[in-house]
Amino acid sequence: MKRLLAVMLLIGGSFSYAEESEHKVLQIVSGEYPPWASKDSKKGGFANHIISEVFSREGYFVEYTYLPWARTYSEAKKGGYDATSLWYPSKEREKLFYYSNSLGEEEVVFFHLKTTRFNQWNDFEDLKKYRIGATRGYTYIPEFWIAVKDNRLNVVVNNSDEINFKMLLRGRVDLFLSATVSGYAILNKNFSLEQVQIVTYNHKPLFSNTNHLLFLRKKANSKRLLKLFNKGLQILIDEGAYNNYYDMLLKGYYSPK
User: I want to staple 139 with a disulfide (CB 3.0 to 4.6 A). Which of 41, 88, 145, 164 is the partner?
Assistant: First the structure.
């Protein structure tokens, strides 16, 4: 009887330990957005490094699943993950997800070949003569997609930033929309120095936006994790660790391997 009790206690303890261990592992689905978020970047990229660091201090281990952006969003909506990284704000997503505090801000600009005459633009009317590359699953801004729908812009939508840069280099699009830091990270990883040197960008951004970690509203633990993350992120900022990591980002530490 004592042996049976001991076995039961051991089994019960094992289940409790397994439940506690499982509870301390967070599953996050992420798109590929180097050097902010990528399986090929050190620490998973700048943003995912910050996310892991914040949760690690609270005793959590984060496991990332990297998928194409459209599928990342689709999987996140199903509720099989604790959170999803890394997203610009949008009214559509705000209906389904809680947004964390900002993990960083970016300017999204038009990349082009140095041989392309594109020195100045003021509105969409100035852009209508160009073939513009865009990436499927990205937010951009509502006005951009309205202009596309109204045939005021000639936009080619591709599955990845890398494909868009290939089309840019081959002259199949004239402009490609990308954030500056991530754009050059992709160029430096996937293309030769000679190719990178013939690409530049217009310094006027189409828009500036912030990046966020998202938690599905319908999941029971989302509010708790959101509060935990925002508090931890602010601690990283206050103690200077965030700025140190951001300096590493600008110096290329998180560039894809």
Answer: 88
